[in-house]
Amino acid sequence: MVLIALGIGSALLSGCGSDNPPGGLHVSEMAQEIGPVSANFVSRALDRAERQDAVAWILMLDTPGGLITSTDDIVQRILAAEIPVIVFVSPAGARAASAGTFITLAGHVAAMAPNTQIGAAHPIAGSGEDIEGDLNDKVTNDAAADIRGIAKHRGRNEEWAEQAVRESVSITGDEAVELNVVDVVAADLNDLIAQLDGRSIQLEPDGERITLEIAGAPIVETNYNFAESVLDVIADPNIAFLFTSIGSLLLLIEAFSPGLVGPGVFGVIMLIFGFFALGPLDTNPAGIALLVLAIILLVAEVFVAGFGFLGIGGIIALILGGLLLIGDASVDAEKVSIWALVVGAGLVGLVVFGLGTLIAVDRRKPKWSFQASHGIVGKAGHAHSPLSPGGTVMVEAELWSARAAAGVEIAEGDSIRVIGMEGLTAIVESSEDEEDDDE
Q1: What is the pLDDT, as a whole number, of residue 360?
Q2: How far apart are the first and last CA of the chain?
């Protein structure tokens, strides 16, 4: 587990670039369904671009859609951006469907590559089925009002935007330019930069206009790091279903067979990740839940005989919780130390399994081995209390529970000799007769 933690830490470090000089053109790619990981990634990438005084941030987008809540987070972050945001539906063949339509319209500049499409933004259930009845009207009206507000804010075609929600209309890049849905069609990133260089835009509707000076600016890439890539795979709806199903099954097994430990530990971990993938848990609370679970399991491993499952589950929960928190944009990247995860998991693993090993070895020792190490067998002493036949004796300034051999009684203060051990009880015989004979 220590080696696994170190390996994950090394991979995490490989995805973290150092700060760049100001004036760069930051570029990111997002080619997956929209979810909590996507929202965290957009926030992290924009934070970095703003922190490094980028001339603009280009988001190269290709998505079939995703969660409404995560889409709202992304749109709000783009609308609040302090630098120009250019959303580019790319490469050729890509699409900005459903949630992607909202995100594209939110950019200061919206662009599409040839043979791409945008639209089909009617809300559907998370399972892919249509929403029916009053709930459909409620969700559709809310989404329509939302996308109209975005389009109006950026001076784009409000009527078409509402149609994309209510009627699921979809159009190509050339049609989108004609309908004032997007601004330009560009063959690739270089073509996009050439077309937009010198273009005047407004960061805010009532703010001053600025001129894009992006030609010749150094390109700075910010893409998914290792943690976000792992979480994005886990956030797949199919994986989420498997996690919640298997997690529930494991808890059921633990309930019917208490004491197995393993099914309960890994069932809880899988349920936490299942709920995260389905959306009810964001990365921050899910990460904290896993860290709390890790602490409980690691402490329990020291005191409970859990066949190692408690410790292994605790280390896994610690690593996964750290991944969630590192991938969470609500935590400032400068305050989250990846080395803290690596070193922390490594040290905790060494200490817990070291203590566990010592305790396990001690538990397996025969009871007589501890007393034998004291070497009191054959030693002389005296009865600290009457032995009839049980009592206590004093041997080499140590008080021991004792029992007189052959069931005889030994008076308090009489001299004794230890002739054997039974667990923690010394078997003794009187040595008073021997002393009398010596006399």
Answers
A1: 61
A2: 68
Which residue(s) pair with 425 in the sheet? 401, 422
| Cα three-residue angle 63-191-222, rounded to 5 degrees | 50
How far, CA to CA in Å, does 123 sit from each of 134, 405, 432? 13, 87, 97
Q: What is the pLDDT of residues 201-246, one digit of tens each?
A: 988 766 678 999 999 999 999 999 877 887 777 766 667 667 766 7
Structure letter (DSSP) for residue 66: B
> H or E element: which one contains 140?
helix 133-153
In one-letter notation, the amino acid at residue 86 is I
**Angle of the 133-153 helix axis to the 68-79 helix axis, nearest 10:** 20
pLDDT 10s digits, 109-134: 999 999 999 999 998 866 556 777 88
Task: Give the sheet arrangement for strand 25-30, strand by strand.
Answer: 184-185, 109-112, 85-89, 56-61, 25-30, 219-221
d(CA 415, CA 434): 10
The answer to whether 195 touches 186, Cβ cutoff 8 Å, is: yes
The confidence score (pLDDT) of residue 3 equals 44
Q: How far apart are CA 247 and CA 241, in angstroms?
A: 10
Residues of 57-80 as b/e, b for ≥16 C-beta within 10 angstroms? bbbbbbbebbbbebbebbbebbbe
Report how far residue 434's alpha carbon sits from residue 419's, in angstroms, rounded to the nearest whole number.
Answer: 15
- pLDDT tens for 307-347 read 566 767 777 777 776 666 554 433 333 334 455 556 656 66
Tokens representing 418 are 């230890």
What is the mean predicted confidence (pLDDT) over 359-383? 65
pLDDT of residue 10 exceeding 50 = no
Assign residue 133 a region: left if phi > 0, alpha if psi is -120 to 50, beta otherwise? Answer: left
Structure-block tokens of residue 63? 């998505």
Axis-axis angle for helices 309-326, 338-364 (nearest 10): 170
Quick check: helix, strand or coil at residue 227? Answer: helix
Instruction: Tell me the C-alpha distance between 55 and 384, whole Å.
Output: 88
**What token pair was written down for 100?**
């992607």
pLDDT of residue 368: 45
Distance, in Å, from the CA atom of 353 to the CA atom of 274, rounded to the nearest integer, reads 28
Find out whether 30 and 95 touch, Cβ atoms under 8 Å.
Answer: no
Other CB atoms within a 10 A radius of the CB of residue 152 amount to 14
Q: What is the pLDDT of residues 404-421, one digit of tens each?
A: 987 788 999 999 999 988
